[in-house]
Every structure is written in C-alpha cells, then in structure tokens.
Design goal:
The protein is of the alpha/beta class. The protein is about 45% helix and about 15% strand. It has five helices and eight strands. Strands 5-4-3-6-7-8 form a six-stranded parallel beta sheet, with helices on both faces. A two-stranded antiparallel sheet has the order 1-2. Helix 4 links the parallel strand 6 and strand 7. Helix 1 packs across helix 2 and helix 4 runs parallel beside helix 5. The longest helix has 29 residues. The chain is globular and about 45 Å long. The two termini are about 20 Å apart.
Length: about 190
C-alpha cells in the first residue's frame, strides 16, 4: 500500500527534530571554540553556518526530507543520491523551484564522491513493504541494500552524523552500526 501522509509526516518530523538538535549542539560547540571559517552562509537563529547534508534515497521519504531541509535553512548544500539517477535529478529540479525565497542553497543529484565531507547523512533507501510481505522479509531485502551503500558512504563521509530512516529502522540502525565501524554516537535511528 502507498505510504500514508500521516506516517510520512511523523517520520519527517522526527528526522527534522533530530537534525535541529544536532545543529544547535554543533552551533554551540562552534561558538565555544570560536570557529570563524565559514565558506557558505546559512542561518540558524542568527548564527552563520555551512552544513552539507546528503540524503541517500530519492523516494517519497528522501525527497520529502530534502524539500523540507531546503526550506529550513539547516543546510547550505544538499546532495541526493539514488540508484535511479534520473529520479534523483527530477526530484532536485522540483525542489530547486521551491527554494527561491531563502538564502542560497546548492542542491544536487550526485554520487557517493559528491557526499565527501558531509556533516549529516540521512539514509532513506530501501524497498517499501509489499502486501503480504513479513517484516523479516523486508528486513533482509533492505539489509542487503544497506550493505551495498554503507562502505561507499562511510568512505566519503567518515565524520558525519548518520540518521537511519530506512525500515525496519531498529534492525537497519543496528546493522549500519555493525558494518560501518563508526562510533555509536554518530548514528541515530529515526522512523
């Protein structure tokens, strides 16, 4: 069945709340060490920021998160990566049309090297649950997808905060933690 708008909005609200908390904590940390080097300007409550966010998966959830981030001024650069490059490019073109009323933002459809040095990576990729499909069957399919994604993205953005949104989120977060080799403090499961 199609993803309900209520489910999508709850998922998105949880993800945005996590990003807000991370950005506020990062802003306070930058103030403490008096960071002055800022390459692109974006503002979160009046504090200049430059933040690169990569979203892996340009489906309903990934593209909705990208659009919402483009309106929130949390990022100066958004990179969308999807196995279907045409889909990612189409989503980027749609999002760009809606960003004309905010500070400059770069939104691109790219590949893993374009995610280099991302501050935040949001993983939404996976297959939606089909009618009659068990949660375990879905988990195995999506774990296989995650196993192919993880080494590529961790290589490019080893210091990023990772937000796992793919379902089933508890299993996907656990698997990502185990195969990425990243510290648990860099990984959030939200779904």
């Amino acid at each position: 069945p199609p993803i309900s708008k209520i489910y999508l909005m709850r998922n998105l609200q949880a993800c945005i709340a996590c990003l807000h908390a991370y950005c506020i904590a990062a802003r306070e940390e930058c103030q403490e060490i008096n960071v002055k080097k800022i390459t692109k300007m974006s503002y979160l409550k009046g504090v200049p920021m430059s933040r690169k966010i990569t979203i892996i998966g340009a489906g309903s959830v990934g593209s909705t998160i990208a659009y919402s981030l483009s309106q929130e001024e949390l990022a100066s650069q958004i990179v969308m990566i999807d196995i279907n490059k045409d889909k990612a490019e189409g989503e980027v073109m749609d999002i760009e049309q809606g960003t004309c009323f905010r500070e400059p933002i770069s939104i691109i459809a790219g590949d893993y090297p374009d995610a280099k040095d991302s501050d935040i990576v949001i993983i939404t990729s996976g297959i939606a649950r089909k009618p009659g499909q068990t949660r375990i069957d879905l988990a195995q399919t999506n774990v296989n997808i995650l196993k192919s994604i993880t080494p590529q993205i961790v290589k490019e953005a080893p210091n990023a905060l990772y937000v796992i949104v793919s379902n089933p989120v508890d299993i996907m977060t656990y698997v990502f933690t185990k195969i990425s080799g990243l510290p648990e403090r860099q990984i959030i499961g939200s779904g």
